[in-house]
TrEMBL record:
It comes from the Eukaryota. This is Methionyl-tRNA synthetase. The lineage of its organism: Eukaryota, Viridiplantae, Streptophyta, Embryophyta, Tracheophyta.
Amino acid sequence: MCLVFVCDEEERVLGRQPAPGACPYCGGMVQAVDVETQWRFCFLPFCFKTKRRYYCTMCTRKLEVV
């Protein structure tokens, strides 16, 4: 007997806007990106999360908020 579980994660960008401050690595402008994450199990959505992530526009690094 073989069981196959299909899990999937889908991310969608909801919006972008400039954020205050500068990148500590290169000094570039920081951009705030709102991302909605949807987890699916066997094609049925069971978890939605919305997060704000910060990225540098020059070196494209993901920045952590401290």
